[in-house]
Amino acid sequence: MSGILAGLRVVELGQVLAGPFAGVILSDLGATVIKVEKPEGGDDARQMGQPFRHGDALMFHDFNRGKRSVILDLKSPDGIAALHGLLEDADILLHNLRAGVPEALGIGSEAVCARHPRLIYCAISAFGEFGPLRDRPGYEPLLQAYCGLSSITGEPGGPPIRMGASVVDQGTGMWTVIGALAALRRREQTGRGGVVTTSLFETAVLWAGQKINEFANEGREPRRHASGHHAFVPYQGFETADGPLLICCGNDRLFAKLCGQFGRMEWTTDPRFATNRARLTNQATLLPMIAEILAAGPRADWLARLTGAGVPCAPINSIAELMEDEQMVASGMFQPVPGEDFSLVAMPISFEGERPRISGAAPRLGEPESRGLAE
Question: Of 258, 265, 268, 264, nearest to 302 (Cα)?
C-alpha cells in the first residue's frame, strides 16, 4: 500500500518529542517529511541515550524514522532563505520551537503565512498562546505535574507519580496532526492555508478533563485509585498465586458472573454488594475477600475461567510478557525498519485492514541525498 498521504510535503523544525512525533505520524502515513536540523549536532534527541545505531540514540530512531534531514543555520540569512525555498512547495510546516524564537528568527506565523499563503503552519508550544506562562518552556513531567495528572496517579496515600508514557508530548503531536489534516481539508474549500496551534498544557488539561469536570461541577476532589476506578467496584488489579490480574466489572451483571466463578452467588443478594453503588460504599469489606480468593489460584487458571464466563479481565503484563503475547505478535504493531537490523512499534491505525509500514530509517544528520530530498 502506498502511503495514504503520499504527495504531501512536510517541513519539520522539531526537537526531541512532540514536534518529531507529529512528523513521524505524517511520515508513516506516507508524507515526505524534511527534518530541518541545526548545524551543532542536530536534534538534541540524537544524544538522549546511549548510541544505538549510527551514533544516535534509540529514541531518535523511534521518532524520526522515514524522514529526510537537512542542516540549516536558521540564525543566518542564508539558512532562512533556504528554509523558504523548502516551503515553496510544502503543504505543512510544523515546529516546537521555544516561544518567541520563531518571531526572533523572522519565521513567525504571520510572516511565513504572508509569504506562503497555502501553507499550514503548525506551532507547538509548552503553555499555549495566552496567559502569564505563554513564554515559558516545558517538558513532559513538568506538565504532568502542573496540570494535575501526577496528583491523580499512584497509590492512595502515596506520592504523586509521573505516568510512565509520554502522554502529553505524544498527545500534543497527535492533536497537531489532527489540526493539520483539518486545516488541509479547509484549504481544499478555500484555497488558503492557516495556523494551527497546540500546546503541552492544553493536552495535559484535556487528559485531566474528566477529573476537572468532576471537581468543577460536583465539588469532588479526585483521589488516587492505583489500578482501580472511582466509579466501579471491583475494577482493579489483584494478585493471584503467580502474577497480577486486572478485573473490570463495569455493571451488576458482570459482577454476578464473577460471583459465579468465585462460588459466592450470595454476594449478588447481599445488600452490601448487590449493586455497584453498594459495593462502592462497602469496598473496604469486599475487596479483601476478592483478593483472598484470587490469591489461591494461578493467574492462567483465573484468566481461563473468568474469560470463559464473560468477565472482562487481563493479565497485568510486563513489557517482556507483552512482547511474547500472541495478540501482540498477531497485531503487526512491531515492524522491521527497512535497511536496518532492528524493529520499532508502528502506528495504531489501519486502512482497509492494512497497517502503514515503516518506510525507512531515521536519517543521519544532514542526509538528504540518499533519501531523495530533491525528488
Answer: 258
Answer CATH for 235-315 from 3.40.50.150, 3.30.1540.10, 3.30.540.10, 3.90.550.10:
3.30.1540.10
The tens digit of pLDDT for each residue in 196-219 reads 999 999 999 999 999 999 999 999
Query: How far apart, in whole angstroms, are the C-alpha atoms of residue 323 and residue 330?
Result: 11
Do residues 194 and 186 touch, judged by C-beta distance below 8 A? Answer: yes
What's the CA gap between 9 and 91, in Å, rounded? 5
Return the CATH number of 9-207+331-371, one of 3.40.50.10540, 3.40.50.2300, 2.40.10.10, 2.60.40.2550. 3.40.50.10540
Strand partners, 230: none
Considering the chain, what percentage of its residues have pLDDT values greater than 70? 97
Where in the chain do CATH 3.40.50.10540 domains reside?
Answer: 9-207+331-371
> Which residues belong to CATH 3.30.1540.10 in the chain?
235-315
Cα(128)–Cα(202) distance, integer angstroms: 7
- Taking the C-alpha atoms of residue 12 and residue 79, their distance in angstroms, rounded to an integer, is 14
Q: Report whether 248 contacts 316 (CB < 8 A).
A: no
Q: Percentage helix, strand, coil, to 5, in the chain?
A: 40, 15, 45
Classify residue 139 as exposed, middle or buried by CB count within 10 Å of its CB (0-12, 13-18, 19+).
middle
CA 235 distance to own-chain centroid: 24
Residue 173: all three cell numbers together:
503531536
Give the whole-angstrom CA distance, residue 251 versus residue 364: 53
Q: Looking at the annotation, which residues are catalytic?
A: 169
Q: Cell triple for residue 110? A: 504571520
**Are the CB atoms for 344 and 52 separated by under 8 Å?**
no
Query: pTM here?
Result: 0.90
N-term to C-term CA, the chain: 20
For residue 11, the SS3 value is strand
Chain segment 318-348, per-residue pLDDT in tens: 999 999 999 999 999 999 999 999 999 999 9
Which residue type, as a one-letter code, is found at position 262? F
